[in-house]
Structures are given as C-alpha cells and as structure tokens.
Design a protein that fits this description.
By secondary structure, the chain is of the alpha/beta class. It has a single domain, classed as P-loop containing nucleotide triphosphate hydrolases (Rossmann fold, 3-Layer(aba) Sandwich). Helix content is 41%, strand content 25%. The chain has a 6-stranded mixed sheet, with helices on both faces. Strand 9 and strand 10 form a beta hairpin. Helix 3 packs parallel to helix 5 and helix 4 crosses helix 5. The relative contact order is 0.17.
C-alpha cells in the first residue's frame, strides 16, 4: 500500500510540560486513523503539529515524500509553512466560519485566493483565472450538494444549526483537495441530535481516495469507521492497531481504564 504520511519521533513541549514524547506512526492512502484518549493526553497537539499550526520541537513529518517538518532542516519561513499546510485539511471543533460571508463564499474564499496566487506565480492570464474561478464555483456547488446543504448556499453562518455549520466546514476543507483530511473533535460542540448528521457525512467520505485522521471521543463511531486506532496517553502512543485489536483485546492497563471510564460516562448520561 502507498504510504501517505510518515511521522517519526515527534516531540513537543510547552514551557516545562512535554506534551508529545516521541510519537511515531505511518498512514496509508485511503486509511482512516482514529486517535482516542483522555483530555490532555496530546491528541489535539499531535493534530496541530501535523498541520503545522503548532511547530514541533523535534522529529520528522513526511507527506507523499515531501518533508513537512524536520528539526534538522531548521525553521521554515511563513510562505513555506502555508504551502506545507495545504497537504492537510483541518476541520475544527468550533467550525471557524467567517460570519460576514455566506455559505458559498465561506466555501470558495480560500480556494479563490490560492488560485489567484498560483495564477500570478505561473504568469497566467485574466481569462485563465476566470476559468479557474468558474471551476471552483462549480465544485463548491457539488460539495454543498454532497453534504446536503445546496439550498443553504446563500445563508449566513448565524442562520445555520451547529451541525450545518460543521458540514460547511467539512466541504470547505475538501475543496482544497488535501492529501489528508483531519478532524479535531468534530462533534464536541454539538448536541446528540446534530452529532449524528455530522458523523454520517464523515463516514460517507470514507473511500480509497480519502485519507483521514479523526480525533474523537465517539468510541462507537471510531470503531465503525476507522481502519486504524491510536490510543494516546501522557504524550505517547500507548496502543495502536485495528479497531478489532484495540477494542476487543486491549493490552494496556491505561487503555482498559480509559474504556471503563468511557462506559461509566455513557451510563451516567
């Protein structure tokens, strides 16, 4: 299988606290990786390091043979960082839509800016750029239809439910064609009714062409949709394997305790 992502000995410290303590794993094209673990264990920090929103202290990140991060190479400038971030599409917990733009503009803004930048770099004509804008608009319409929101393209974020906003955020990430689509607790800000609609959209994205990383507390969803599970505790990968291996035959005591606590929380709710 084709390896899309390779992470080697990734470390990150905030002040005196080492949050990531040497994380290493590979991800193949079309795989869905679910990252689980208790709050504060390093899940979101790992995701943000991959996306270069947080710069690791050491280690290496490689996407499709492109070195995204290597501490041996020194600090990247902001322009190079922006280019490297395009390998990833990140869907945040809190949607992060622009309130002043309607749904369609939220979807096309970054894609249009990137097209304009590429057109200038490649010395393209105004007609070339116009054609690219038309292609982006057509793709945006198809993506909104795919996430069930074509009728909301002229609506503003304040007019949408949380689940609808998150579906727009997913479509916005997809339009840039990232190598890896990342979700950081995509349902944490949603009530149970809206959680289901977002999880169904994410599950519908699973294919041989879409490689995904999902940080989630939704254990049944992780078990159903993931091809690989990573359990992170105290900044290290405590256990890694298929959903069957991790959920049905956990070896780590920390993982067993995590599952027991998860069951207790569900029972209390």
């Amino acid at each position: 299988m084709e390896t899309v992502l390779k992470v080697e000995n990734l470390r990150k410290r905030f002040d005196k606290e080492e949050v990531l303590k040497g994380v290493s794993f590979d991800l193949n094209k079309g795989e869905v990786l679910a990252i689980i673990g208790s709050s504060g264990g390093g899940k979101t920090t790992l995701l943000r390091c991959l996306n270069q929103l947080v710069i690791p202290d050491s280690g290496k990140i490689i996407v499709n043979d492109d070195v995204i991060f290597d501490d041996a190479l020194g600090k990247e400038n902001e322009k190079n960082l922006r280019t490297k971030r395009l390998h990833f599409g990140l869907v945040f917990q809190q949607f992060n839509l622009f309130p002043q733009y309607n749904v369609f503009s939220n979807l096309t803004l970054a894609a249009r800016l990137l097209a304009k930048e590429n057109n200038k770099k490649n010395k393209g004509s105004a007609e070339d750029l116009k054609k690219e804008y038309a292609r982006i608009d057509e793709e945006a319409t198809k993506l909104l239809e795919r996430v069930g929101l074509k009728d909301k393209m002229k609506s503003y974020p304040c007019e949408l439910s949380g689940g609808q906003q998150q579906r727009v955020a997913i479509a916005r990430a997809l339009i840039l064609h990232p190598d890896i689509l990342c979700f950081d607790e995509p349902t944490s800000a949603l009530d149970p009714e809206l959680t289901g609609e977002v999880l169904r959209v994410i599950e519908g994205l699973k294919s041989n062409d879409n490689t995904m990383i999902i940080v989630t507390h939704e254990m049944e969803f992780a078990r159903r949709v993931a091809s690989k599970i990573i359990f992170i505790a105290d900044g290290v990968i405590e256990e890694m394997g298929t959903p069957e291996e991790v959920f049905e035959n956990p070896k780590s005591e920390k993982l067993k305790n995590f599952f027991n606590k998860s069951v207790e929380v569900i029972a209390q709710n």
